[in-house]
Structures are given as structure tokens and as C-alpha cells.
């Protein structure tokens, strides 16, 4: 009987360790998901917002350009903002992940 108690007590600790390890992995996954979602939204919406801000508020009001030139300049601004957003994502993916190192598990 004493062997059964020892085995079940050890199994309880193992289950608790597995549960805390699973919670740790879940929180890491959620954190990674939030980061990727943020950069996806930045990559999708920043160029669109940049295009319309440049077109509607900056170029039309302050410069006397033709509509075609305003559209071209706004498109160039949107492409530049897209490249900045992609560069930020690549920088974060390459240099920002130093705190999360892979841990070998059995």
C-alpha cells in the first residue's frame, strides 16, 4: 500500500508540472499570436491609411498638383510605409526574439 501512495503522489506532481508547462506554452503562444496579429494589421492598414492621409489632407490641400500626380505621390508614400512596416516585422522576428529560447523537452 505504501508503494501505491508514493506512485500516486509522484504522478500528481508530474501532472501539476505538465499543467504549468502547458499554461506556460499557452501564454507564449498567445503572446506570439498578439505580436503577429499586430504586425499583420500594421502591414495591411498602414499603407491604406497613409495613402488616404497623403491624398486627402497633405497633397491636395498644401500643394497645387494635378490629380494624377497626387495619386502617384500617395501611392509612393503607401509603398514606403509598407516597406517600413515589413522592415519592422523582419527586425522584430530576427533580433527581437532573444528572450524566447527553445527548451528541449522529453
What portion of residues belong to β-strands? under 5%
Radius of gyration over all CA atoms, rounded: 26 Å
Order of helices and strands: HH
Mean pLDDT: 82
Q: Which regions have little confidence, pLDDT < 50, spanning 5+ residues?
A: none
Shape: rod-shaped
Cα(first) to Cα(last) distance is 30 Å
Quaternary structure of the protein: single chain
- Sheet having the most strands: none
Summing up helix and strand content along with how strands pair, one would put the structural category as mainly alpha
Instruction: Assign a percent range to the helix content.
Output: over 70%
Keywords: Cytoplasmic vesicle, Endoplasmic reticulum, Membrane, Transmembrane, Transmembrane helix
Protein name: Vacuolar ATPase assembly integral membrane protein VMA21 homolog
Lumenal side: 54-69
Organism: Drosophila ananassae
Structure keywords:
106 residues, mainly alpha, 2 helices, 85% helix, rod-shaped
What does this structure look like?
This protein is mainly α and about 110 residues long. Helix 1 (about 1-60) runs antiparallel to helix 2 (about 65-95). The mean pLDDT is about 80. The chain has a domain at about 35-95. The protein is built from two helices and no strands.
